């Protein structure tokens, strides 16, 4: 085409059309590149869908731990812990974005400041933020009765990790500290939960060391509100790969082995199974910097901190699968006021 033969009006229309096509192409690529990890929109895109609501959040505020579980997938790669005021600011942002349940984990959450830091956050979430559910996951080794006396009223659920009811097996796994009995602590904490009206829960990671164990009798005696049973999961940079602090390959079991364990315990009504498929993308995990961790690629890729960019933008890079969250039973009766428990 010879532009000298084209009218100025037609030439202008052609230029506008070309520019429009270029912008449409660029916009499409930007949308493809940035929207992959986000259910809704990111800050550079128009909000054509609602952003993910952080209904249930797991805040791993510390990585330090006094146990050395061989399959641990959140290891002590840093010793950083946010100042209390900053942590509370982040928790308030989450509440304003729709959070209903917060779960504090680690590392070992009772290790930092002997549980006082944790207690302050638990009280803040229940008393100030009025969250329906506040829970903790702990190995149980650092919990004292005086903590329950001071903070128990603000806690809905306490989950204690226990992978075996054989002390020697716990030692082999690394869920132990010296000669202290992990099982004695477990039963003692169960009684404190009953006394101070905190719902008691047990978490177990099924691996090569406990795959043949029958835990039914002990679980039914302890009578937790939930028994979460996890299939051992590999996370690159945490418990597998070159930069990992653990070598969890020797703990890994097959899907079939995991199913056989579940079948053996099918009579335990409180059992809640979580295979690798269900677990990998169905948790909203915040690290010690309050960054969401995306585990879709078998590693933990962090977002920017919610303290810097807000919850709506950070959550877009969490890789969170809300459908799988609901499928695995992530939403349940999680406030002790609604559980109708007999204390």
From TrEMBL:
Q: How does it sit in the membrane?
A: Peripheral membrane protein
Renumbered to this chain, the signal peptide range is 1-24
Alphabetically, the GO molecular function entries are: 4 iron, 4 sulfur cluster binding; catalytic activity; metal ion binding
Q: Which InterPro entries match?
A: Aldolase_TIM, Elp3/MiaA/NifB-like_rSAM, RSAD2, RSAD2/Viperin_antiviral, rSAM, rSAM_sf
Share an example GO biological-process annotation for this protein. defense response to virus
UniProt keyword annotations, A-Z? 4Fe-4S, Antiviral defense, Endoplasmic reticulum, Immunity, Innate immunity, Iron, Iron-sulfur, Membrane, Metal-binding, S-adenosyl-L-methionine, Signal
The protein's location, in the record's own words, is: Endoplasmic reticulum membrane
The answer, when asked if ATP-binding is one of the entry's keywords, is no
Cofactor needs: [4Fe-4S] cluster
**Where do the Radical SAM core domain residues begin and end?**
51-271
A GO-annotated cellular component: lipid droplet
Q: Which domain of life is it from?
A: Eukaryota
Record carries keyword Iron-sulfur: yes
For this chain, the family text in UniProt reads: Belongs to the radical SAM superfamily. RSAD2 family.
Q: What is this protein called?
A: S-adenosylmethionine-dependent nucleotide dehydratase RSAD2
Organism classification: Eukaryota, Metazoa, Chordata, Craniata, Vertebrata
